[in-house]
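Listing S7. Sequence submitted for prediction.
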Amino acid sequence: MSSPETSRGPSVWNSVPGIAYGGDYNPEQWPEDIRLEDIELMKEAGVSFLSVAIFSWGLLEPSEGNYDFGWLDDVLDNLHGAGIKVALATATASPPAWLARKHPEILPVTAEGVRLERGSRRHYSPSSSVYRRYATAMTRVIAERYKDHPALALWHVDNELGCHVGEFHGEEDAAAFRRWLERRYGTIEVLNDAWGTAFWSQHYASFDEIIPPGAAPTTLNPGQQLDFARFNSWAFMDYYRELLAVLREVTPGVPATTNFMVSSATKTLDYFDWAKDMDVIANDHYLVAADPEREIELAFSADLTRGVAGGDPWILMEHSTSAVNWQPYNQPKMPGEMLRNSLAHVARGADAVMFFQWRQSKAGSEKFHSAMVPHGGRDTQVWRNVVDLGEALRRLEPVKGSRVESRVAIVFDYEAWWASELDSHPSQGVKYLDTMRAFHRSLYLRGVTADFVHPTGDLSGYDLVLVCTLYAVTDEAAASIASAAHHGATVLVSYFSGIVDERDHVRLGGYPGAFRELLGIRTEEFHPLFPGTSTTLNDGTVGSVWSEHVRATGSTEVLATFTHYPLDGVPALTRRATGAGSAWYLATLPDADGIDALTARLLDEAKVTSAAEAGAGVELSRRRAADGRSFLFAINHGREDVTVKSDGEELLSGERFSGVVPAGAVAVIAEDPPN
């Protein structure tokens, strides 16, 4: 059971004017008089784009084969009458009760063998042939009915694939896993070699003997775990492709996507692998209210989303106007924060700003999740914020289609993330994102925007390349990174990088195997640090999490050394000139001051500067149009006014930029062309 691979279709941006604005619209929750009121409120707010029918299967098909589309017909007609375009969903994100009752075999099974029941959402396995049959049938019915509707601008396939349940252990999932393995490896002998099954008598005589990694007496085979992560990402993609094939057949002129959940907390799906099947990248992002630097995490996630999109404009499909309902403590957003959040996404490449949801529910699990129309209605600050944001986005229409500028690349790989956090590693304290986020934070605070690039992506246009905890790497990717340094880039590689190949086999001969020659170093043993302990380098930098016994070779410079026993005098930071560039190695996780000092040295060598001269506390990013026009975004997350050096028209006010961004405010400057 495998759907055909697909290619990208037409662009949604031809159908939706300006910076698109809207959210998830769930009219099935409301009577007709509220739906009619919604249209007037949408006009007031400047809404231009809505996702519709995401969770409506149970009402569209209340019993098998019996359909009720009358209410949806009216909704789409009314939206079209108001000039609002629609991302119409396949309605398959939550199977109706009658389907789960008739076919309980569609339900997910956990590693412990527990079947997850209906009564929530996302209660199906993507490998279920029964579920696929029903889901593709529903997709076809919707596509045939609305293929010519003038409101239709985009297909919204399913919803948040991989959310809640990311791996599946039922009998049909196991069979699909075996078929996937057989396609990947061809013979059982090749699989045995890839998984290293000579260890612990794990040898397989046939693919039929293999099961998904589940509850076991002790640690599981890491090769098997890594392949199971790959399989689960693929299984969702294969399911997506099966629905997409129906949409391509019925509506070849309508683009399609699904909403990703790119953030620092989600790693179920390999979104770089998925991107080729999206006509446009769409993403859902939610702040963690308790994070005092949540605007920096937002920037990280938005930059990563743009990386997945290959630098193209993308859709912010969901975020929140204020509080969510699913965190332990759900605080509302602070004054001006919703505008700052929304425009921060635009600053980092989004050409659509959307929310969950249009009208706040009065019942159900997410009734306390904020929305564009809150429980209190129009006479609320949330609603006034929504109207103000609509006006702001209208004024930013010139920005549409421009691309974010960056000369810094951060190498990012979901497979390396999966592999680096498997069982039985030298330290449970090593987390894939820690060093990466530390460098990204330092760049952010300096007004330097970074692109996220897959290890096999094009690094030729970057002056600084950061390779953080790239534990697993292919020969091809390692060669691409080395080539970037040889051709003039400053490349920094951090600890626990290049250790294994794509099979999770250690690269023999000394660490960091894949980068040993590039860096001019050789590590014999790791010396991970215990929680709560640190090391101090001879330049005063304080490090944590990791240290190792590094030996510099050849002409490699030693820039800093460890001072703790037994590594006193051992290199902790090195640099090697190579070709027209250089390759640095960092053997510990510096604290914030240490990261910032190192970032300054790297930027200085790479001759990369801030997007603009500005006071502390302002987020800076620049987008540039194909005709050369540039737009500087300056977002003041602080409580004091900040100066920013830039000349041009401030688009949100329509006036010349004064050089000051008030506390909590945003300025978007259409910069004057250089003299």
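Caption to Listing S7: primary sequence and predicted structure tokens for the chain studied. Residues 222-250 form the longest helix (29 residues). Confidence is low (pLDDT under 50) at residues 1-6.
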